[in-house]
Design brief:
The protein is mainly α. The chain has one domain: Up-down Bundle (Methane Monooxygenase Hydroxylase, Chain G, domain 1), CATH 1.20.58. The protein contains three helices and no strands. Helix 1 runs antiparallel to helix 2 and helix 2 packs antiparallel against helix 3. The longest helix is centred in the N-terminal third of the chain and has 37 residues. The N and C termini lie far apart (about 60 Å).
Length: about 90
């Protein structure tokens, strides 16, 4: 257990930051899952809405440092290709 004041503070900060990151990561994954479900169902209206949301959440996660910028770009590119392939 931490005995110094600063170590105790860092434990509190880490717990708070971890919880925030977990929530943001969960939101990102949920939006991707919703888009994949819409793609499998072939629902064009829902695909448009969920793709915008998923893209925004991926960009937001990359800007917060949850995932790397390149990873976000790759995921967006692959999802975009699936959406485009469905509409073609």
């Amino acid at each position: 257990m931490a005995t110094h004041q600063q170590a105790k503070k860092r434990i509190r900060q880490t717990a708070r930051i971890t919880e925030r990151n977990r929530a943001a990561r969960s939101t990102m994954r949920s939006s991707i899952k919703a888009l994949e479900t819409a793609i499998e169902a072939g629902d064009k209206d829902k695909i448009g809405q969920t793709f915008t949301t998923a893209m925004a959440n991926l960009h937001k996660a990359a800007s917060k440092g949850l995932i790397k910028k390149e990873t976000a770009s790759r995921k967006i590119s692959r999802l975009s290709a699936r959406v485009k392939g469905l509409s073609a």
